[in-house]
Task: inverse folding
């Protein structure tokens, strides 16, 4: 079973997020559960007929037209019984079917400082029950960790080290699956200054982490195409996807 999470990058010049070209590309990876960030409701409506189970979420604050789409043909998608919408956006779904019954937190943090929404959600203890049992937390954390962040060369890197350590400490009930080790760096995002950053993560409850077959981040440099002062993954988005392959029992 394959779970794919991707920020498709809404373009404020063309007013497009999930274009047909982007959709066609991400479908090539054959997701069983697909999560797309920065997708408009109109774009979601165009693809939803392809999927038996689907949801699009936006809290409508600040007149935002962008939200999170989550779709599947084999797994039922429902909001969990408890969902605090003040944590923007750490959205918990119960995903069930085919010997899979887990919570997936789709993360696309909103408003600076972005990562504080994650800390607020964890510090509140509202989701402790879900996180400690059978949960996956995956998406765009907007951390902005810079390449070589573990090498404290300047004040920015030192501050980002502190942020990363705090993130690991706060999510101590979960296993960080994005990185092989705490110090192994994976680029997932390109910014306007042509630098690459670590913005996207996957964390999994430790008791179910053995079900992970592998995590793939297709972030090879030849996948990034430069347009102006910025690189785009396959010329499509400033983020590359996270692909989680999961072993199903039975």
Result:
């Amino acid at each position: 079973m394959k779970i794919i999470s991707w920020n498709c990058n809404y373009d404020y010049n063309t007013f497009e997020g999930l274009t047909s070209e982007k959709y066609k590309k991400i479908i090539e990876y054959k997701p069983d559960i697909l999560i797309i960030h920065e997708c408009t409701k109109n774009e979601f409506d165009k693809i939803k007929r392809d999927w038996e189970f689907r949801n699009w979420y936006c809290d409508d604050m600040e007149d935002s037209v962008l939200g999170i789409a989550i779709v599947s043909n084999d797994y039922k998608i429902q909001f969990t019984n408890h969902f605090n919408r003040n944590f923007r956006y750490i959205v918990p779904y119960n995903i069930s079917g085919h010997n899979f019954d887990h919570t997936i937190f789709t993360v696309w943090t909103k408003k600076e400082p972005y990562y504080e929404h994650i800390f607020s959600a964890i510090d509140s203890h509202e989701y402790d029950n879900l996180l400690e049992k059978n949960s996956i937390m995956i998406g765009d954390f907007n951390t902005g960790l810079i390449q070589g962040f573990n090498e404290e060369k300047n004040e920015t890197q030192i501050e980002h080290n502190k942020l990363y350590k705090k993130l690991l400490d706060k999510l101590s009930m979960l296993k960080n699956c994005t990185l092989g080790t705490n110090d192994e760096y994976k680029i997932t995002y390109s910014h306007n200054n042509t630098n690459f950053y670590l913005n996207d993560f996957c964390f999994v409850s430790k008791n179910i982490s053995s079900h992970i077959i592998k995590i793939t981040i297709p972030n090879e440099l030849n996948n990034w195409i430069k347009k102006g002062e910025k690189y785009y993954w396959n010329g499509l988005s400033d983020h590359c996807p996270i692909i989680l392959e999961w072993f199903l029992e039975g």
